[in-house]
């Protein structure tokens, strides 16, 4: 089910999916900026989660935290999770998920650490990946 960029998707939607879609295998929620850990909790406890859900895409979901990964630990069929631009997801959270699902493919991106302002330098750098023009 592709719900990518459906900006009206909320936790209530995920509750309904968890109840009424027991054979859901692939779910894209990328850019659904209103969903939270609570919605993922319902999805992780739903009928599809334990035996059916293979792929979940959560790219650019700013309210998702490591708690969501905890809720997905019981999804034994989960093969892949997308977490690009989820600013509240940590490497430690992904590591904990992998202890329960060792074969899962996790696609995530972590922005480079912003260095401290240079002492006495004339140009301040903002991050290593930015080019100051």
Structural notes for this entry:
This protein has helices spanning 11-20, 37-45, 47-51, 66-71, 91-100; strands at residues 26-28, 55-57, 80-83, 105-108. The chain has a four-stranded parallel β-sheet, with no helix packed on it. The chain has a single domain (11-107), classed as Leucine-rich repeat, LRR (right-handed beta-alpha superhelix). The protein starts with 10 loop residues before the first helix and ends in a 25-residue tail after the last strand. The protein is an alpha/beta fold. The radius of gyration is 17 Å and the shape is globular. It has five helices and four strands; from the N terminus they run αβααβαβαβ. This is F-box and leucine rich repeat protein 20. InterPro entries: Leu-rich_rpt, Leu-rich_rpt_Cys-con_subtyp, LRR_dom_sf.
Please tag this protein with its features.
133 residues; Leucine-rich repeat, LRR (right-handed beta-alpha superhelix); four-stranded parallel sheet; 4 strands; globular; disordered C terminus
Query: CATH class, anyone?
Result: Alpha Beta
Largest sheet: 4 strands, parallel
- Which value, in Å, is the CA radius of gyration? 17 Å
Kindly identify the CATH topology.
Leucine-rich repeat, LRR (right-handed beta-alpha superhelix)
Mean pLDDT: 87
Assess the beta-strand content as a share of residues.
Answer: 5-15%
Unreliable parts? 124-133
Count the helices. How many? 5
First-to-last CA distance:
42 Å
> In total, how many domains does the architecture comprise?
1
Pfam family, one: LRR_6
Protein name: F-box and leucine rich repeat protein 20
Organism: Pipistrellus kuhlii (Kuhl's pipistrelle)
InterPro entries: Leu-rich_rpt, Leu-rich_rpt_Cys-con_subtyp, LRR_dom_sf
């Amino acid at each position: 089910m592709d719900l990518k960029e459906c900006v009206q998707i909320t936790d209530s939607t995920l509750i309904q999916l968890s109840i009424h879609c027991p054979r859901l295998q692939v779910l894209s929620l990328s850019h659904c900026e209103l969903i939270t850990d609570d919605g993922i909790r319902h999805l992780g406890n739903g009928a599809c989660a334990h035996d059916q859900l293979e792929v979940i895409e959560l790219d650019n979901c700013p309210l998702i935290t490591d708690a969501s990964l905890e809720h997905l630990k019981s999804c034994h069929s989960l093969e892949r999770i997308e977490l690009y631009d989820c600013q509240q997801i940590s490497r430690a959270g992904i590591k904990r998920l992998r202890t329960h699902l060792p074969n899962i493919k996790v696609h995530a991106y972590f922005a480079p650490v912003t260095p401290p302002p240079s002492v006495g330098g004339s140009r301040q750098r903002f991050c290593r990946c930015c080019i100051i023009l």
